[in-house]
Amino acid sequence: MAEPFIHPTASVDSRAEIGAGTKIWINVQVREGVRIGRDCILSKDVYVDHGVTIGDRCKVQNSVSIYNGVTMEDEVFVGPNACFTNDKVPRANNPEWTVTPTVVRRGASIGANATLVCGIEVGEYAMIAAGSVVTRDVAPFALVMGNPARQVGEVDEAGNRVENRA
After folding, report:
1. Can you tell me the distance from the alpha carbon of 105 to that of 127, in angstroms, rounded to the nearest whole number?
2. What highest taxon heads this organism's lineage (predicted)?
3. CA-to-CA distance for 160 and 100, rounded, in angstroms?
């Protein structure tokens, strides 16, 4: 198995677990306690907060922020500048704050500039359109878009829009 590739400008904490064949590119930061699976790609300027889990064969495009509490299963695609949150009621100083988890199931795709508000589950092979703000769970194979994101159709495993998924 191929060793992971870590670009010299990336900052990867020694306590992070990086799978074989994974490529971590320019200016990426991976914090302590992160688990990244095999054969992933983390593109330029990605931030992965402590405790995040990313499955096998995921692709995370430029400038994505993935905060503590996020779990991504295998084969998830995250488009450029997408952002995951982890705080339902953000304040600069809240000593009672706790992480609100988010789960992205196998094969889901998240479009460029999408924002995922914490506490949701994105179903397997779901498709989130670019620029969407996701504030509630997304069903498996659903196509959602808008602010707030609403289901407008269904997709198949390849991401093609379908009339009635059988």
Report:
1. 11
2. Bacteria
3. 31
